[in-house]
C-alpha cells in the first residue's frame, strides 16, 4: 500500500559534494515502508514529473533519504529548508526480500546506491541475521553513511581512486567475502550490479539488485519504466521498475 | 447542485471526466489513491490483437510542462484484457472505454469486432499513435486512410465508436470530417504531438525510439484550438484531452467544444488530479449557476 | 577557449545566438539591458510592403510554459525600416536578419528585391505566420506553394535567403525539401504552433484573433524534433528556434541539426537570457573540450 | 532608463480581502522611479510571463506596491515572505506628467487603480501644487490607502454600495470638483476612465489616464500590449501600454 503524504522537511543537510541528507516528517509513509522501496517526490511547480528517491532508513514518523544533485529536480530538492512541505508518494515498489538472503547476507552499495542498503542492513539485523556491508565510492569526498553502517555490522569501504580506505572496487571485496555469504543484495551503477550478479551466480547464492529507470507515474500505470527481463521462454519481456522493482532477482534481469 | 451527467453518444457518463488511454493502465494502480467509481469513465491502455512488449527504456523524457513517451503500446493483447481486466473494472460504477490500435485495416476490423462483443461501454479507436512505426501514424494523418479504416471498423462496431485523432496534421478539421463521414460516432483528441529530446552529455536521443509523443500542460493550448476547430467542422460528440490539469481547464475544454474530457499526464504529477478536478468543476458550475455540463459544451462566443 | 563563430551560408556570425523575429522589435529596447554587439545576429520584427497596424488587443495569452500571440505583423513597413532602423542597428557589431512577409507571391518578390538592396546581412522569409488570414499560413503548409513563392523570391534575392517554416504541418521534411529545391539558402524553424485559450469567465477567446501562435519552452521538444527531421531531409544550414532558454538548450538544438539558433519568448521572462545563454554555451563547450560550434551541429548519434 | 533588479521583500502585508501591500528593497529602481510607472515582476518558475504592477510610492531604497490577487501570478506574489527575493524589471513605461496638470490637479483612483495615484499626489505636492484625491471602492472591505492620501491632500472617498463614506461613484465627486480643477489624472477600470475623460473634456482641462493591457516583454519590443489610439488622420493606430503608456492623454485614447 502507498499513500500521498504532505511531509514537513525536518532536516536537509549537505553531506558532501552535491550530496544531501533529508529527514522528512512522514508518519503514514514510514508506517508502511520496507527496505529497498522508494518515494516519488514532487519537485516544485517547475517540474511535472516527480523524482524517485530510495528510502534510506526510517524510524516512524521520520523518513530519511539521501540524494545527489544531478539536474534541476534534485537541485530544487537540495534547496528545501526545514519547515518546508514536500508532496511525497510512497512507499512505492517492491523492495529487498532480506529474509531470502539467508543468515549471512552481504549488502553492497555503490555511490548513491549506498543509502538504501542501510535500511536493508538494519532489517537483516532485526531478523537475526549477521550482515556485512561493502560500500564503494568514487573518492574520499563521496563517502557517505559509513558510521551508520559500522554501527550495524562489519563494513568494508572502497574508493575508486584510493583516496580513502581500500583502493579498488566493491567487487574486489565481494570476491573475498563471497565464500562466507548466504546471499547478496546490491544497489548502484548497472555495470557494478552486473559484475556482482555474475559473482553471486558463480558462488550459487541468491542475488537481488535494485534497478533504475526514468519514471512517469511511479505506481505501475503508465508502463514507461521498462526493465528488460528474461522470460521463461528465453525471450525478453519488460518488467516495470516502479512496481515489479526496483528490486529484482539478478537472475531475472536481462543485462 | 449542478448536473454533471453527460450523454456521450448514447452512453450516460456520471460526469464528464474520464482517464486518457495509456496513462491509467487498467485502473488498479490509481484505484489505490481514489475510488474509481468517481470517474465518468476509464480509458484503458491501448490494446492490440496480440501481446506487445513495447519499446526498450528509456520510454519517457521530461520537457517544460510536458513529457515525451515512447511506450510503444505495451499491452497484454485484447484477449487477456477481456478475460483478466474487464471483471476488475466492472466492480466500479463507471464506464469502460476500450482503446484499440492496429497495423492494418483488417486488424482494426478484428479488434473492433472482438471488443464489441465484450462487456465494454465505448470503443476508442487510436489511429494516431506516433510510436508504432508501421500503421498508426499513417492512418491518422491522411483523410483517405482515415475514411478507409474508420468505415471498415464501423461496419463491425456494435458499440459507439470514438475515433482518436492525431494532432500532427496540417488540417485537423479535414481529418475530423473524414472520420465523421466514415461513420465515427464520436471523436477524441488530441493524441500526443511528436517531439524529441537529446541528452547533451551522451549526445544521444533520450528516448530509445528517438522521437516520442508530447503530452501534459504544455500541449493544452494546441488541444483547445483543435477541439474548437473540430467542433466547428463536425457534429458528433467530442472527447477533449491534452494537458488538462484542473477543473478550470475542463471548463475551458468544454467551452471550446468538448462534450466530455480525459485526463492523463497530470496524474503523474498528482495521482488524485481527476477527483480534485471533479470537485473544482462542480464548485465552479455551482458558483456560476451552470446547471448542466451541456450548457458549457461549445459555448465559447466568438466575434 | 571555444571558437563560437559560425559560417551561416557565407555570413560569419560571431556566435550562434540570434534573436527571433517579432520578439525583439528593432533592438532598441533590449539594448538597454545588454550590449547588442554580443549577439551573433538580430532578427528584426517581421516587415510587410506597407505599414501594418496589427490586431486589436488582447494580443497575448499565457499558457503552461508558453505564450500565445496574435500581434498580426504590426510594423512600420519595409521603407521606414530601411530608413529609420538600419542605421541604428549598424551601430552594433552584429548581423542584421531582415524578416519579410507578404500576402502574395508578388509581394514577397518585391520585399526580397527591396531588402536585398538595403544594408542587411541575411533575409528571412516568413512563409509561416499563422496570424495573417490571407497568405501567411497557406504558403507555408503546402509544398507546391512553398516552391512557387520561394523560387520567385530567390530570383530576386541578392543576399542569402532563409526560409522560415511553419510547424503546423503533417510532414515538415516535405516542406523543407520543397523550400530547398526552390533555392532557399537556409531554413529557419520553428515558427509558432497554432493554439487557443478561452477566458472561462467571459466565455470568450482570450485573444482578439481567436487563435494565436504558441511559443516558449512548451514547444521546445517539437522544435528539436522538427530540426532533427529537417536536418535529415536537406543540406542547407538551419537556424533552429522554438522555446530555447539556456545554453544547454542551445547545445541540444545544435546537436539536433541547427547551425545557429534564435531566442525569443524567453526574453519576456528574462531580458538578458541571450547573453546568459552565450556564457553558458561557452562554458559548456570549454568544459567538454568542444572547440567549435560546428562540431556540435547535427552531431546527435542515433541507433 | 530601466534596470533588472533582484529585490528583497521587506514586507508583504494583507490589507484587505485579497489585497496586499508589498515593500521591496529596490535601490536601483527607486532611484529612477516616476509616478505612474510600473514594475514587471517575475512570478516564480510556474509562470513564463512577468506581471505588471504599478509603482504606488517609493522612498529610496524602498519601493511600495499594492496588488490584488486575481489569478495564479498574483497569488504567488501574495505568498512571498519577508526576506524572499523577487526579480523585478523597472521602472517601466511612461508615467503621469504631473507638471502638465496645473496647480490644482485632481487625482482619481478606482479600486486597484488607487495605489499609483498616491505617488502622483506626492509628486504634485512636491512640485508645489495643491492636489485633491478622489478614491472609489466597491465596498468598505476594499478601501485601501485612505490615510496615506489624507496625509497629503484633501481626499474624497466613495463606495459603490455605500457601505463606507459616500455612496456613489468617483464621477459624482468629480462633477462637483471639476470647476476648481486645473487637470485630472486617473487610474481604474476602463468605463470609469472613459467617463472621467468625458467630464474633463467638457470642462476643458487636461486629462491623463493609465491604461491596462496584457503584456509580454514589458519594454516595447514585442508589441503585444496594443492600446487603440486616435491617429491624426482620424484612423486608429496602436500605442503600446508598456512603453508609450501606461499613461496616455485621454484625448488620444480610442475609447
Ligand atoms: C528507484 C530509484 C531510486 C533512486 N534512488 C535515489 C536515491 O536514493 N538518491 C539519489 O540521489 N538518486 C536516486 N535515484 C536517481 C534519481 O531519481 C535521479 O537522480 C533524479 O530523478 C534526477 O532528477 P534531476 O531532476 O535532478 O535530473 P534531470 O536529469 O534533470 O532529470 C530529468 C528527468 O530524468 C529523470 N532521471 C534522470 N536521471 C535518472 C535516474 N538515474 N533514474 C531515474 N530517473 C532519472 C528524472 O527523474 C527526470 O524525470 C533513484 C532512481 C530510481 C529509479
Ligand atoms: C500597467 C499596469 C499596471 C498594473 N498595476 C497593478 C497594480 O498596481 N495592482 C494590481 O493589483 N494590479 C495591477 N495591474 C493588473 C495586474 O497586472 C494583473 O492583475 C495581473 O497581471 C494578473 O495576473 P494573475 O496571474 O494574477 O492573473 P491571471 O489572470 O492568471 O493572468 C494571466 C495572464 O493575463 C495577464 N493579465 C490578467 N489580467 C490582467 C490585467 N488586468 N492587466 C494586464 N495583464 C493582465 C497576466 O499578466 C498574465 O499574463 C496592472 C496592470 C497593468 C497593465
Ligand atoms: C505514457 C502514455 C501512454 C499513452 N498511451 C496511449 C495509448 O495506448 N493509446 C492512446 O490512444 N493514447 C495513448 N496516450 C495518449 C493519451 O491518451 C492522451 O491522448 C495524451 O496523453 C494527451 O492527454 P494528457 O496531456 O492529459 O496526457 C498515451 C499517453 C501517455 C503519456
Ligand atoms: C510576440 C511574437 C511575435 C512574433 N512575430 C514574428 C514575426 O513577425 N515574424 C516571424 O517570422 N516570426 C515571428 N514570431 C515567431 C518567433 O520568431 C519564433 O519563431 C517563435 O516565437 C519561436 O521561438 P521562441 O519560442 O524562442 O519564441 C513571433 C513570436 C512572438 C512571440
Ligand atoms: S513509472 Fe509508470 S509504470 Fe513505472
Ligand atoms: S509588452 Fe511587449 S511591447 Fe508592450
Automatic annotation (TrEMBL), chains A, D:
Segments crossing the lipid bilayer: none
Cell membrane in keyword set: no
Keywords per UniProt: 2Fe-2S, Electron transport, FAD, Flavoprotein, Iron, Iron-sulfur, Metal-binding, Pyrimidine biosynthesis, Transport
Cofactor remark: Binds 1 FAD per subunit. Binds 1 [2Fe-2S] cluster per subunit.
Annotated positions binding FAD: 51-54, 66-68, 73-74
Cofactor(s) demanded: FAD; [2Fe-2S] cluster
Pfam families referenced in this protein's UniProt entry, alphabetically: DHODB_Fe-S_bind
Entry-linked SUPFAM superfamilies: Ferredoxin reductase-like, C-terminal NADP-linked domain, Riboflavin synthase domain-like
Domain (FAD-binding FR-type) ranges: 2-98
Annotated positions binding [2Fe-2S] cluster: 217, 222, 225, 242
Pathway: Pyrimidine metabolism; UMP biosynthesis via de novo pathway; orotate from (S)-dihydroorotate (NAD(+) route): step 1/1
Family classification: Belongs to the PyrK family.
PANTHER family (alphabetical): DIHYDROOROTATE DEHYDROGENASE B (NAD(+)), ELECTRON TRANSFER SUBUNIT (PTHR43513), DIHYDROOROTATE DEHYDROGENASE B (NAD(+)), ELECTRON TRANSFER SUBUNIT-RELATED (PTHR43513:SF3)
Function, in words: Responsible for channeling the electrons from the oxidation of dihydroorotate from the FMN redox center in the PyrD type B subunit to the ultimate electron acceptor NAD(+).
Subunit structure: Heterotetramer of 2 PyrK and 2 PyrD type B subunits.
Protein name (Swiss-Prot/TrEMBL): Dihydroorotate dehydrogenase B (NAD(+)), electron transfer subunit
Species of the source: Agathobaculum hominis
From TrEMBL, chains B, C:
Reactions accelerated catalytically: (S)-dihydroorotate + NAD(+) = orotate + NADH + H(+); (S)-dihydroorotate + A = orotate + AH2
Active site positions, chain numbering: 129
Pathway listed: Pyrimidine metabolism; UMP biosynthesis via de novo pathway; orotate from (S)-dihydroorotate (NAD(+) route): step 1/1
Keywords recorded for this protein, A-Z: Cytoplasm, Flavoprotein, FMN, Oxidoreductase, Pyrimidine biosynthesis
Protein residues bound to FMN: 21, 45-46, 99, 126, 164, 190, 216, 242-243, 264-265
E.C. code: 1.3.-.-
InterPro entries reported in the protein's UniProt record: Aldolase_TIM, DHO_dehydrogenase, DHOD_1B, Dihydroorotate_DH_1, Dihydroorotate_DH_1_2, Dihydroorotate_DH_cat, Dihydroorotate_DH_CS, Dihydroorotate_DH_I
A Pfam family matched in the record: DHO_dh
A GO molecular-function descriptor: dihydroorotate dehydrogenase (NAD+) activity
Broadest EC class assigned to this enzyme: oxidoreductase
Cofactor binding mode and count: Binds 1 FMN per subunit.
Domain of life: Bacteria
Predominant localisation class: cytoplasm
Binding-site positions, substrate: 45, 69-73, 126, 191-192
Matching Gene3D superfamilies: Aldolase class I
Cofactor(s) listed in the protein's UniProt record: FMN
Location of this chain's protein in the cell: Cytoplasm
Domain Dihydroorotate dehydrogenase catalytic: 4-285
Record family assignment: Belongs to the dihydroorotate dehydrogenase family. Type 1 subfamily.
Function: Catalyzes the conversion of dihydroorotate to orotate with NAD(+) as electron acceptor.
Name this polypeptide is given: Dihydroorotate dehydrogenase
Amino acid at each position: 500500500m502507498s499513500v500521498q503524504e504532505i511531509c514537513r522537511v525536518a532536516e536537509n543537510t549537505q553531506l558532501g559534494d552535491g550530496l544531501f541528507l533529508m529527514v522528512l516528517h512522514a508518519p503514514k509513509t514510514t508506517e508502511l515502508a520496507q527496505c529497498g522501496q522508494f518515494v516519488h517526490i514532487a519537485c516544485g511547480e517547475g517540474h511535472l514529473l516527480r523524482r524517485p528517491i530510495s528510502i534510506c532508513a526510517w524510524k516512524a514518523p521520520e523518513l530519511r533519504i539521501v540524494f545527489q544533485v544531478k539536474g534541476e529536480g534534485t537541485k530544487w530538492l537540495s534547496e528545501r529548508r526545514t519547515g518546508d512541505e514536500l508532496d511525497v508518494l510512497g512507499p512505492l515498489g517492491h523492495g529487498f526480500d532480506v529474509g531470502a538472503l539467508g543468515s549471512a547476507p552481504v549488502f553492497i552499495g555503490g555511490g548513491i546506491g549506498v543509502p538504501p542498503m542501510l535500511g536493508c542492513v538494519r532489517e537483516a539485523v532485526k531478523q537475526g541475521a549477521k550482515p556485512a556491508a561493502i560500500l564503494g565510492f568514487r573518492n574520499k569526498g563521496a563517502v557517505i553513511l559509513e558510521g551508520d553502517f559500522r554501527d550495524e555490522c562489519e563494513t568494508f569501504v572502497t574508493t575508486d581512486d584510493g583516496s580513502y580506505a581500500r583502493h579498488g572496487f566493491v567487487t574486489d571485496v565481494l570476491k573475498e567475502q563471497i565464500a562466507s555469504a548466504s546471499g547478496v543484495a546490491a544497489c548502484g551503477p548497472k555495470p557494478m550490479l552486473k559484475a556482482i550478479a555474475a559473482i553471486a551466480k558463480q558462488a550459487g547464492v541468491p542475488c537481488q539488485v535494485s534497478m533504475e529507470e526514468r519514471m512517469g507515474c511511479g505506481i505501475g500505470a503508465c508502463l514507461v519504466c521498462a526493465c528488460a527481463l528474461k522470460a521463461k521462454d528465453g525471450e525478453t519481456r519488460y518488467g516495470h521498475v516502479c512496481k515489479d522493482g526496483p528490486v529484482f532477482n539478478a537472475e531475472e534481469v536481462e543485462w | 447542485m449542478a448536473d454533471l451527467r453527460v450523454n456521450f453518444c448514447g452512453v450516460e457518463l456520471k460526469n464528464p471526466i474520464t482517464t486518457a488511454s495509456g496513462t491509467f493502465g487498467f485502473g488498479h494502480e490509481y484505484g489505490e489513491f481514489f475510488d474509481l467509481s468517481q470517474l465518468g469513465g476509464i480509458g484503458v491502455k491501448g490494446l492490440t490483437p496480440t501481446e506487445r512488449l513495447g519499446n526498450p527504456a528509456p520510454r519517457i523524457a521530461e520537457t517544460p510542462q510536458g513529457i515525451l513517451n515512447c511506450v510503444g503500446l505495451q499491452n497484454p493483447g485484447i484477449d487477456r484484457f477481456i478475460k483478466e481486466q474487464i471483471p476488475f473494472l466492472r466492480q466500479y460504477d463507471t464506464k469502460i472505454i476500450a482503446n484499440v490500435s492496429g497495423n492494418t485495416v483488417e486488424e482494426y476490423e478484428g479488434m473492433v469486432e472482438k471488443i464489441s462483443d465484450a462487456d465494454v461501454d465505448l470503443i476508442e479507436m487510436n489511429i494516431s499513435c506516433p510510436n508504432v512505426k508501421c500503421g498508426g501514424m499513417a492512418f491518422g494523418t491522411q483523410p483517405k486512410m482515415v475514411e478507409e479504416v474508420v468505415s471498415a471498423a464501423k461496419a463491425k462496431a456494435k458499440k459507439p465508436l470514438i475515433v482518436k485523432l492525431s494532432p500532427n496534421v496540417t488540417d485537423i478539421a479535414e481529418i475530423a470530417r473524414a472520420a465523421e463521414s466514415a461513420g465515427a460516432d464520436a471523436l477524441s483528441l488530441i493524441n500526443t504531438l511528436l517531439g524529441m529530446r537529446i541528452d547533451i552529455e551522451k549526445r544521444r536521443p533520450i528516448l530509445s525510439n528517438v522521437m516520442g509523443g508530447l503530452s501534459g500542460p504544455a500541449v493544452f493550448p494546441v488541444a483547445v484550438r483543435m477541439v474548437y476547430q473540430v467542433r466547428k467542422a463536425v457534429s458528433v460528440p467530442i472527447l477533449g484531452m491534452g494537458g488538462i490539469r484542473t477543473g478550470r481547464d475542463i471548463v475551458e475544454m468544454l467551452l471550446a467544444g468538448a462534450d466530455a474530457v480525459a485526463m492523463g499526464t497530470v496524474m503523474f504529477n498528482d495521482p488524485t488530479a481527476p477527483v480534485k478536478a471533479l470537485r473544482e468543476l462542480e464548485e465552479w458550475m455551482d458558483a456560476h449557476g451552470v446547471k448542466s455540463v451541456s450548457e458549457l459544451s461549445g459555448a465559447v462566443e466568438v466575434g
